[in-house]
């Protein structure tokens, strides 16, 4: 990938204290795709990150689905969530030993539903891949990340949103 | 506009092959590191390890593997642990496996989590794709990365590795 404007940091958050959620708002529609990298932990241990998106406000309706495939060190398992109130993505642990990414393709178009690809990595627990869907044709300009089990993210967790431009 | 996705170094294996590819003196000026590889082995074997700062301890991992007919998961447990794909020498000629490794916050004083996504292709029944969740339980900043083929064999000529630095501002 060429250096420079095709992989642009839009916003980054390093938590200074425990916090229930992280929101990126006012996201410009000038990129092609979005990618969020996480290196995060929560107060209760291994979990996924809930991803909710919207246009001006977060959609909390049952308009999300996710398919996942994970390996926990002994078996490989796949499953789905449907008509859910969020997608799930990435992975966290009780300390800052897990990471993941979340990509949203063609996030600003207003004709198609929005798809997500994600990977989560927790060496003490699993390697996992996800594909998600938000059933809306609205452009995404706000994203909220919360812990799957409604626990707090811990201080020091980092979340960085990048914009990727096709040209 | 800020240059936030920067090539730090690259390496192409020459005639005769190489037992490893190493990037040293990695600057601490970035937020994350990304390694992109295209590798083929000189002998039978399918994976590579990443060794940080020449350390041979405190690595852990879990992987998810698809063979073309089934999926499996396991723990390598090697020191260092497997982290990416390299094409087996018996697989289709002129084919190189591709992998990416991502290392967030590589200069932090926390333990270093990193990921690996790897694919091989082979014009036969079996070929492998894999995901790795890796951890190096060391608080030191990463200043060097050595890519080594499984089993101590060589990487063949034209194998490549690119190391990028990614900044969050």
Describe the structure.
The complex is a heterodimer of chains A (167) and B (169). Helix content of chain A is 0%, strand content 55%. Chain A contains no helices and 13 strands. Chain A has an 8-stranded antiparallel sheet, with no helix packed on it. In chain A, strands 2, 4, 5, 8 and 12 form a 5-stranded antiparallel sheet that branches. The mean pLDDT of chain A is 96. Chain B is mainly β and 169 residues long. An 8-stranded antiparallel sheet of chain B has the order 1-12-3-8-9-10-5-6, with no helix packed on it. In chain B, strands 2-11-4-7 form a 4-stranded antiparallel sheet, with no helix packed on it. The model of chain B has no long low-confidence stretch (mean pLDDT 96). Chain B starts with a strand and ends with a strand. Chain B has one domain: Jelly Rolls (Sandwich). Chain B has strands at residues 5-12, 20-23, 32-39, 47-52, 59-66, 71-74, 82-85, 97-104, 112-119, 129-136, 145-149, 160-166. Classes of the chains: A mainly beta (167), B mainly beta (169). Chain A binds chain B through residues 1, 3-9, 12, 37-39, 69-76, 78, 91, 95-101, 119-129, 156, 158, 160, 162, and chain B through 1-7, 31-32, 60-66, 71-75, 102, 104-105, 108, 110-111, 113-115, 117, 131-135, 137, 166-169.
């Amino acid at each position: 990938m060429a250096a420079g404007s095709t992989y642009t940091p839009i916003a980054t958050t390093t938590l200074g204290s425990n916090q229930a959620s992280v929101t990126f708002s006012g996201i410009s529609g000038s990129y092609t795709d979005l990618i969020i990298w996480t290196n995060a932990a929560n107060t209760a241990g291994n979990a996924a990150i809930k991803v909710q998106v919207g246009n001006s406000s977060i959609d909390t309706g049952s308009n999300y689905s996710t398919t996942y495939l994970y390996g926990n060190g002994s078996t490989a398992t796949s499953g789905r969530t449907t008509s859910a109130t969020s997608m799930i993505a990435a992975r966290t642990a009780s300390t800052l030993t897990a990471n993941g990414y979340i990509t949203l393709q063609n996030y600003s178009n207003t004709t198609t539903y929005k798809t997500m690809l994600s990977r989560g990595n927790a060496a003490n627990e699993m390697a996992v891949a996800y594909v998600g869907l938000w059933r809306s044709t609205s452009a995404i300009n706000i994203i909220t990340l919360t812990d799957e089990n409604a626990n707090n993210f811990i201080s020091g967790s980092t979340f960085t949103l990048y914009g990727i431009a096709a040209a | 506009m800020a240059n936030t996705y920067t090539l730090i170094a690259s390496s192409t294996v020459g005639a005769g092959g190489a037992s490893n590819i190493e990037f040293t003196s990695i600057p601490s000026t970035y937020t994350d590191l990304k390694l992109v590889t295209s590798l083929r082995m000189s002998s039978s074997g399918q994976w590579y390890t990443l060794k940080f700062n020449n350390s041979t301890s405190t690595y852990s991992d879990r992987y998810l593997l698809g063979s073309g007919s089934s999926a499996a998961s396991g723990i390598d447990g090697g020191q260092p642990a497997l982290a990416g794909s390299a094409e087996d020498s018996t697989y289709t000629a002129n084919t190189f496996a591709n992998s990416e490794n991502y290392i967030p916050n590589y200069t932090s004083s926390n333990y270093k989590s990193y990921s690996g996504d790897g694919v091989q292709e082979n014009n036969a029944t079996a070929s492998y794709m894999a995901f790795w969740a890796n951890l190096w339980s060391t608080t030191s900043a990463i200043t060097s990365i050595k890519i080594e083929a499984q089993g101590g064999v060589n990487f063949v000529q034209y194998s490549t590795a690119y190391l990028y630095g990614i900044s969050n501002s």
